[in-house]
Each structure stands twice: as structure tokens, then as C-alpha cells.
Amino acid sequence: MTQIAIILGSTRPGRRVETVARWVAEAADRHPAIKAGEVSVELVDIADYGLPLLDEPAPAATGYYQNAHTKRWAARIDRFDGYVFVTPEYNSAVPAALKNAIDYLWSEWNHKAAGIVSYGLYGGTRAAEQLRQTMAEIKVADVHAQVAINPFIDFDFTESEAGACAPGERQEALLTTMLDEILEWSRALRVLRDPTASADPRFVPT
């Protein structure tokens, strides 16, 4: 089964990333491959891992992790075939906490696919572009389709001041396309992650 992580990319108190990620998960559950049980989707919140400012003495590319928090984070990320990064835009960039979490690891990210759901005043597009540069460096294939959430358009403020993420059909259609691309690429890259595997999980060698 193909496993996809929805990564919550902010740790700020009062963050909106939780409501955006919940919308992503709920919309993803309506994707045909997920409904058919061919793909699983899990929320992964970097706030749950208590990662301090990068404190590993050896570069991540060595794979020599000394700290328990790093090993725990590495084990979780390594399980997945692809990712959906949910990120706000802070000062035209991704949150420092997200960049820090990415920088902790290396091989666990390699040869996988990722999509980006960004949000902010301008849809978080500048943060998404910065994140694409980082994806290239850690050998992650970032897909073309992207969802850009604008709080003034895609949030419902009728029940609370913080609002709830409630995008329209167009945004869900974009998310479905993005998931299609993540699944295509994650399956194609399977042979790089495991040379004995087939790029098509439905193919069983005889």
C-alpha cells in the first residue's frame, strides 16, 4: 500500500495549519484510490516531535543520528512513500520550524514525491516556491499541481474568530489532481527506494 503523510508545517500557538490539514485529510478521503484502500493517508504534526533547533553534530547525509528526538522523527518520516506539506507563509518563506524539521533528515526524504498546500495573504505561494527549492536538494520530486489557500476566501468565520478552512470545489479539484500526481511519482520512484520493487505495485514478478 502506498503511504502518504500530510505534514503540518507550523508549531506556532494559535496556528491555522491544523484546520487546513484537517480539510486536506477530509478531502483526501474522497480520492478514489484512498476510498479503494490502495493508499493510506496520515497526519504528521512536527509539533509532536519537540525538535529543537538542529542539534545533530553530524550532517544528516551521514545518517549518524545521535539524539532520541531525531531517531523518532526519522523513523516516522521513513515509513512514507510521499508527502503533502501544509505550510503557511511567514515573511515570504516557510516557517523556521518546518525548515528545521526537514534539515534534520536526508535519506528518509530521498526518492519520494511531495505536493504543497500553502496558505497566507497571497495563498502562501512564496513559501511554496521556497519549499520547492528545498525539495530539490533532498531529492524529493515536488509535483506541479499546488493548492494555495487564501484565508479571506477559503475560510469560514461564522463560528469562530480563527475560522475554519472551507475551500470550494475548485480547490478540492486541485487537491485531487495533486494527489494523483503524488501517487504517480511515488510509485514511479519506488524502484529507486527499493531496486527489487516494481514501479507499478500491481505488478507481481513471476
From TrEMBL:
Residues 3-150 form the NADPH-dependent FMN reductase-like domain. InterPro entries: Flavoprotein-like_sf (IPR029039), FMN_Rdtase-like_dom (IPR005025), NAD(P)H-dep_reductase (IPR050712). It comes from the Bacteria. It holds the Pfam family FMN_red. GO terms for cellular component: cytosol. One of its GO terms (molecular function) is FMN binding. PANTHER family: CHROMATE REDUCTASE (PTHR30543), NAD(P)H-DEPENDENT FMN REDUCTASE LOT6 (PTHR30543:SF21). This is NADPH-dependent FMN reductase.
